[in-house]
Each structure stands twice: as C-alpha cells, then as structure tokens.
Amino acid sequence: MSNDPKKDDPSKSWRPETQLVHAGALRSQYNETSEALFLTQGFIYNSAEQAEARFKNEDPGYQYSRFGNPTVSMFEDRLKIFEGAEECRSTATGMAAVTASMLSYMKTGDHVVAARAMFGSCRYVVETLCPRFGIDCTLVDGKDLDQWRAAVRPNTKMFFFETPSNPTLELVDIKAVCKIARDNGILSIVDNVFATPMLQRPLALGADIVVYSTTKHIDGQGRCLGGAVLCSTDFLTKYLQDWVRQTGPAMSPFTAWIMLKSLETIPLRIKAQCESARQLADILPTQSNVTRVIYPGRADHPQAALAAAQMPGGGQMIAFEVAGGKAGAFKFLNALRLVKISNNLGDTKSLVTHPATTTHFKLTPEQRAELSISDGIIRLSVGLEAAEDLIDDVTTALAAARS
Ligand SMILES: Cc1ncc(COP(=O)(O)O)c(C=O)c1O
C-alpha cells in the first residue's frame, strides 16, 4: 500500500452516481455512516508548536472555518471529484462564487468579455462593479462566435458566460468559445447553474473555471444558499485561495452538510425533473395561447444541434410565451394552484417566474427586447411533483388565461 492516500483513492474511477454518494467522505473516530457536521468556528492545537506549524502550512489540519472546515472540505472534494476538477472552493452564495472567480484574478486595466444573456446580478458584477475598479467590459451575443473573437483585446483576461441562459435558454457553444479564449491566453468561466453538473461538463469542453449557485439544483430542495468555484490548482493557489480566505465568503459547515447530502440524490432528482419537463414542453405548443416554447430538449429549439452535442438532456427549465403580454401572463400565473410563483429555481417544488417584472425588471425595455424577454415570457422550473399533476395545473391555468 502506498503512503500517498490520494494515490490509493479509488473514487476517481467510480461511476458518477457512486462518486456523488461516497467521494470525499472523511470519517471521524466514531465511523459514522452519514457524514458528520462539524459545526465549529475554530480548532484547538495540541501545543504552541503545532499552532505555529499549522500557520506556516507545515502541519496539515484546520485553523479556522473561514479558511476551511472538515464538512466543507467533504462537500468540496465530492463536487471536485465528480466534476473532474483539480480544485473546488465553496462560497456562501452563487454570487460570491462569480465575484470571487473574477475579482481574485483581474485588476485595474484588464478587460472582461461576457455573454449579454446572463443572470441580473452577474450582469451587475460585469457591467457595473468591474468598471468601477477599472476593469472594462464588453457584452456580446453569446451565440455569435464572431462577436467573441471581435471583442478580444490585448488586455482581455476573462470570458464569462452562462449556458443555457436565464431566462430564455439560449446556448453558448462552450467548446468553440473556450477555444477562442485559450488561443488568446484568456481564462473562460462558465456559470453552469441552469444545466446542472448532471447535464453539462464545461471543464471537459475546455472551460478553465466553472461556477455554481449551489442554492439551485445542488441543494435542490430550496433550503440553503451556496456557491462553488471549480478550477485548476494553479488558479486556486495563485488567485482564488487568498481571496476566499481573506475576504470571507466562506460556506457555513451547516450549508456544506446540506449540499453534501444533496449531491447523493442529484442524479435521481434531475432525471425525474427532466422527464417531467420534457412532457410539459411537449404539451405547451398544443395550447392555443402559448405563442412560443423554448426548451433545449425539443427539436424546434433554435440551437437544438448544439444542445444535443453539449447537454445530454433538455434540462428542467422551460421558457414559454403566453399570449396577451403582461396581462395574459399574470392571468396565467394567478390561476396556478400547484406551481408556485417564485424567482427561485431548481427546487423539488415547481416554481414559475415572470422575468420581465421580477428577475429582469431592472433592464430597460430595449435591453429586455435584445434578450427576447417579452412581457408574455414565463420561466418554469420543473420540480418533482407527478408530471400529470403539473400538466393539469399548467393547462388549467392557461385555459383560465384564455377566458
Ligand atoms: C445563472 C445564475 N447564476 C448565479 C446565480 C446566483 O446565485 P445565488 O442566488 O446563490 O447567489 C443565480 C441565481 O439565481 C443564477 O440563476
């Protein structure tokens, strides 16, 4: 047997479902079955010498939960092994993960290029926060490779995009865009929230960094906020590590425990949710007051071929347009009995959003038009209820919106 515990770690060769149940587990002296929750801020040293050695990184072990915690490490290791990343650092929210991955690396005088169709808070970070610190930004149509190429400047340091995008499920060709980045010495960050780790592997497609709001499908049950950054050891040690240690966006041990246990069931949840989403996405076009359905698993998605190439499954998010603009959309929303109105997504409970008046209300009408977010657009996050009950609820509410 080798002395290198990593060398003997079989978890890297396990199949994904097995990794999500077992990888990264650390057992205490009690040999518990379910991973322990180390709800502690600090750690005690056996001697002054040990404290000194630990601060000098000469003695392995924990110092303070802002720097690291065994339960948090278990979550990070499980996600890292599953994603095939060298490193993972978790954060208190998805936005902390996005901000940390950008601001730990860029400085005044740098330039970032991002796909215009992105979550509102990410847009704030790129469009408002970065320029405030002297980092220029260019927004492009993520679908258009020429725009990515044309946006590159000598000082461009990062590409940022989400795919599928929120809320209109536009796709970015991960392989092609990350190649443009790599050819120009630029790091690419993919926000993989909508696809989930089950349906899209950006690192395998050439991305340098993957970020998650683990608030969404990783928790998957609407309980805790969280985030994660997956990256190389080089990026972690040179940039991210100090940022997360010193600026303090740490994930709490309790949240990490929730996320760790949730990873065990994510394959089952996503599979069931995608199956119900597919059924709903096929029913919607048959409804006379649905004027548009956007679902990456349908053959009529404008980028169906790309979806099939980079996402093995259509996902659990659907966007569709209800006739009658805001009034039609509101009538539909208010007639729902089972599906709940919320700006959140990725829950076991099906949730529905009117982006124009909530998640994207801060954009100007012109900016919304540019992203095809009309007043009739609805975003539906499909949960774990019986598909038949969801179909009944959605079709009954659509009928009410017609009357
Ligand atoms: C695509 C995307 N990225 C990032 C975030 C931010 O995540 P959090 O709310 O956990 O900060 C969200 C949240 O809705 C999101 O939808």
Structure report:
- The protein contains 15 helices and 12 strands.
- With 403 residues, the chain is an alpha/beta fold.
- It folds into 2 domains: 253 residues, Aspartate Aminotransferase, domain 2; 136 residues, Aspartate Aminotransferase, domain 1 (Alpha-Beta Complex).
- The strands form 2 sheets. It has a 7-stranded mixed beta sheet with strand order 1-7-6-5-4-2-3, with helices on both faces. Strands 8-9-12-11-10 form a 5-stranded mixed beta sheet.
- Helix 3 runs parallel beside helix 10 and helix 13 packs across helix 15.
- The protein is globular, with a radius of gyration of 22 Å.
- The termini are far apart.
- The structure holds pyridoxal-5'-phosphate.
- Pyridoxal-5'-phosphate binds next to helix 4 and helix 5.
Short description:
This protein has 403 residues and is of the alpha/beta class. The protein has helices spanning 16-22, 48-55, 70-83, 94-103, 120-132, 145-151, 174-183, 196-199, 233-247, 253-263, 266-283, 304-310, 325-335, 365-370, 387-402; strands at residues 87-91, 111-115, 136-140, 156-162, 187-191, 209-213, 227-231, 290-294, 317-322, 340-341, 351-353, 377-381.
**Whole-Å distance between the termini?**
73 Å
List the bound ligands.
Answer: pyridoxal-5'-phosphate
Q: Can you tell me the CATH superfamily of the largest domain?
A: Type I PLP-dependent aspartate aminotransferase-like (Major domain)
| Series of secondary-structure elements, N-terminal to C-terminal | HHHEHEHEHEHEHEEHHHEHEHEEHEH
CATH C-level category of the largest domain: Alpha Beta
Classify the oligomer. single chain
Query: What characteristic shape results from the CA principal axes?
Result: globular
Largest sheet: 7 strands, mixed
